[in-house]
Amino acid sequence: MQKRIIGFRVVDNKYTAEIIRDRILNIVKEYGIANHIISITLDNTTANTKTIKLLSNLVSSYTRGFLLHQRCACHIINIIIKSGMDVISVYIENIRSAIAYIHASNPRIAEFKRYCIAQRLKPRKF
After folding, report:
1. pLDDT tens per residue across span 87-116
2. Quick check: pTM over 0.70?
3. Which residues form the signal peptide (predicted)?
4. What is the rounded CA–CA span in Å between residue 75 and residue 110?
5. Whole-angstrom distance, CA of residue 74 vs CA of residue 15
């Protein structure tokens, strides 16, 4: 049984709208689905936005050239998380340093344990 893969991954060093368009069109032609596409999911690069403009008139004739560029939710979430991590990375490093300081000696660990008990908190390991 022959495997068929729907989709592609650009592996060339050139990541242009024209190359992406051509790869998508090859798949569309192979499967004969030009008149069945209303949306394509791509990430948010400029090349992908331009690709959608180039493809609009070539596929989805029944939608009169309208082609929705559905941006990849996972990619957007990844960008948001990376941005958030940039903001809090200083605080994370400070916490790591504090934990390393406490764990550097047994008396500090014991003092931390006494502090937790005095505050009615359960002493925890880091």
Report:
1. 999 999 999 999 999 999 999 999 999 999
2. no
3. none
4. 45
5. 20
